[in-house]
Amino acid sequence: MSPSDQRYRTIISQCEQYHATLVAVSKTRTNDEIMVLYNLGQRIFGENRAQELMAKAPDMPADIEWHIIGHLQTNKVKALMPYVRCIQSLDSPRLFKTIDSEALKAGKTIRCLLQIKISKEESKFGWAFEELNDFLRMGHHLEYKNVVLEGVMGMTTLTDDQTVIRTELNALKKLFDQIKVDHFPTSDHFHTISMGMSGDYPIALEEGSTMIRVGSLLFS
Length: 220
Hints:
- By secondary structure, this protein is α/β, with parallel strands linked by helices.
- It has a single domain, classed as Alpha-Beta Barrel (TIM Barrel), CATH 3.20.20.
- An 8-stranded parallel sheet has the order 7-6-5-4-3-2-1-8.
- α6 packs parallel to α7.
- It is globular.
- It starts with a helix and ends with a helix.
- The model has no long low-confidence stretch (mean pLDDT 95).
């Protein structure tokens, strides 16, 4: 068994321990590299860029579940519709409306996560919590029948300070809990907390993550 195979099995075991799902982040990776993980049993892959996902997906097995995990421009949504199963980076009312419109035209529903900005870095995208809470409180999300909201996603500050990382991850878990109680109390499908990447996923699992996004550890 190669070191990368062993790392994959270790991460899967950790996910099982915490009842979490692994998204293998395949940005910049070739289809051959992706197939190595596919042949180990991995089926969910995440791409940062719409163009890269669209280039890879047509030549890959049909049972791969593709997620967009990076910032998504509205003008890329239509072209993604044949391939994407989940958009984790739903970060604005405008994008919400566009996804719903294009999903309706495509005759499908799209699973989405609400990306919340938990990092203080200006380069990070996401809803400010108060803005999101107002959007949900006013019921705007109920206008869009072709978007299924399944939870939240967040990205921590790029730092080695584990106290900062844990604080931000804990904050996202608390925001999820509040949103669930206030806006989705009877919804069975609002259940996902996507947080944790290669550098911090063990902490994320401890803090309540139900979905981790890991790339470099799997492909190195």
